[in-house]
């Protein structure tokens, strides 16, 4: 039995990506070894693992931001947004950065799939959220604390929902 050429090429590309620059080191090297429809082996591919997903309902929404404080965590400042079905306890997928360089990612679990980040009466988040590098205390960090590097081989990022 022969393996189709496309699977061989995809395996080589995925192998190259998983050995490339890493934005977040993990004790579990298999954590970033996953397949998802969004992962196609493109240059600058960010393999994202979102942990702390409590329910397999709704969507995980991820926003990619450039290395610019102005516009960080604002709709006008994001480069791209992707949404995928939430899967408990971990949701994994890929985002393509437009170039190599420094980027930040913000994610939230849109539990009710209403395409919005719900907030409570005091303006505090009503849905779980997280930011790259997981440097979150009582408020979102400045962009420089959330930055990670993307090379041509891509990057691996793990974000824990709060």
What does this structure look like?
With 162 residues, this protein is mainly beta. It has one domain (5-160). Helices cover 11% and strands 31% of the residues. The chain contains 2 helices and 8 strands; from the N terminus they run H-E-E-E-E-E-E-H-E-E. Strands 2, 3, 5, 6 and 7 form a 5-stranded antiparallel β-sheet that branches. The longest helix is centred in the N-terminal third of the chain and has 14 residues, at 5-18. It is globular and about 45 Å long. It starts with a helix and ends with a strand. The relative contact order is 0.25. The model is unreliable at 1-26 (pLDDT under 50).
Low-confidence stretches: 1-26
Rg calculated over all Cα atoms: 16 Å
Give the topology string: H per helix, E per strand: HEEEEEEHEE
Q: Tell me about the biggest sheet? A: 5 strands, antiparallel
Given the C-alpha coordinates, what overall shape results? globular
Q: Percent of residues in beta strands?
A: 25-35%
Mean pLDDT reading: 83
Condensed summary:
The protein has helices at residues 5-18, 143-146; strands at 45-51, 59-66, 80-85, 90-96, 101-110, 129-131, 148-150, 155-160. The protein is mostly beta strands.
Supply database-style keywords.
162 residues, mainly beta, five-stranded antiparallel β-sheet, three-stranded mixed β-sheet, 2 helices, 8 strands, 11% helix, disordered N terminus
């Amino acid at each position: 039995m022969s393996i189709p050429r496309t699977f061989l090429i995809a395996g080589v590309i995925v192998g190259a990506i998983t050995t490339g620059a890493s934005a977040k080191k993990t004790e579990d090297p298999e954590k970033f070894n996953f397949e998802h429809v969004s992962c196609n082996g493109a240059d600058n591919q960010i393999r994202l693992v979102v942990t702390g997903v409590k329910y397999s309902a709704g969507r995980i929404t991820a926003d990619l931001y450039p290395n610019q404080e102005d516009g960080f965590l604002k709709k006008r400042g994001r480069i791209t947004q992707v949404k995928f079905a939430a899967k408990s306890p971990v949701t994994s997928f890929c985002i393509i950065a437009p170039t190599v360089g420094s980027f930040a990612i913000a994610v939230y679990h849109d539990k009710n799939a209403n395409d919005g980040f719900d907030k409570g009466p005091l303006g505090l988040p009503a849905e779980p959220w997280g930011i790259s590098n997981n440097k979150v205390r009582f408020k979102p960090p400045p962009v420089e604390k959330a930055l990670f590097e993307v090379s041509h081989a891509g990057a691996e990022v793990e974000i824990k929902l709060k």
